[in-house]
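[Automated response] Your request has been received and processed.

Submitted sequence:
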Amino acid sequence: MPVPVPRQRAIPAVESGQAPAAPTVGGPSEAEAPLHRDPARKEETVRNDATAEDDSARTATSTATPATAPTAPTAVHPAPHPAPRPAPHGTSHTTALTLLLIEDDPAAGPIVPDLRDSDGKPMRVRTARNLTEAGRLLTDDVHCILLDLTLPAPGRAAGDDELAVLRHVLELAPRHAVLALTASGDAERGAEAVRVGAQDYLFRDELDSRLLSRAIRYAVERKRSDTAERRLAEGRLRAQENARLERGLLPTPLLEGSPLRFAARYRPGRSRALLGGDFYDTVRTPDGTVHAMIGDVCGHGPDEAALGVELRIAWRALTLAGLCGDELLNTLQQVLEHERDDDEIFATLCTVDIAPDGRRAGLCLAGHPAPLIARPDRPARLLPYENNGPALGLLPGARWPRMQVELGARWSLMLYTDGLIEGRIGDGRERLGQDGMVEMIRRQIAEGLSGEELLRAAVNEVRELNGGELTDDVALVLLDRVP
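Generated structure:
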């Protein structure tokens, strides 16, 4: 018994992009139909792709052998695979370009249908008689719009604005290339259309398939180039604005009247950023006490950087208001809890308040590494950290004891974040750590380094030991008392 031959939808080769358009039984489908149509069919100008496919299918199946007919087995040749949909506008494409023609009387124009892209593939053409129809046909797979400038713009009287329809289309399709179509000899109007935003203009009476094909390809590439250039310029402006903002957020120490010397070094872990999650500040209150602080918000993104700035500003305000020690840290924890986006966000903090005589200081640690002190009569070492309290934001109602430390007559006090000590040593997993950092600072001081030069050398050496750029933020503050 013969095997029934399954019915298959015949896909025109021109639709798949594998062959040029050719007439089929029953006349050309919509996808193949010329733009220059018979005036009698003017009412059928706009047809969507689905209708065109149905017409092609009916044409192909009307002559096929019925599925139940007992005929001899016949070799079945599979229809060509349909081409994938064109890539969205602004990306490189491997399928045929799609043109949207907006013209009130397509039958009256000399536009020819044999349009091909740079690969020789036929261009797909959609036709709209007004802007309402154009809005329905304007999809992401349209690459270029050919607009008749004589069309009236919605809501505008004739003569109000010669390019009103172009302005409307540019608002409707800001990401698409636009070619303006004008009468021969009206070059001034065409040039004005380009100044308004069209990629090029064409004269209706001088148009042929070769010129139009080349103009479409040029317009698409120019639009793509203009879009890329605009995005690059916008990116540069955003980067400049961010840089100005971040510079303004970096602290200015308030040490007027203090004999202490101040130096700081800041290196954010984020690429091309000026500000990270680390923060620091130094102020002198009217009683002569110098207050220094350094902290670190967990994480490395812009949200963490913004939270660090908020905590620094809050610390300065609270310090100038007279708070210190446990009372100050408890208030900062409340600020953190109200400002953070996630309950798991926390911040470590180290505060030091140096007495007016400069010989002693109060130290509070909230999950932060202890500062390093260097004096002429003994090697650099870490200040006591046995009473280190929890990081801010971890334990409600936590306490942070204040430790009294002796500094001496001449000293250098360095506050730092863990980015300085968590860098790796070589290719292994071993990290520098606090002990390695102390040994490094001892050696650099012995070499005569101090102030900004010491901090710069410390950061550079840590980077070299890490084998490249550090992934964590690094902040260092150095206070020197030289009687």
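Summary generated for your ticket: Residues 209-249 form the longest helix (41 residues). The mean pLDDT is 79.
If you did not submit this request, please reply to this message.
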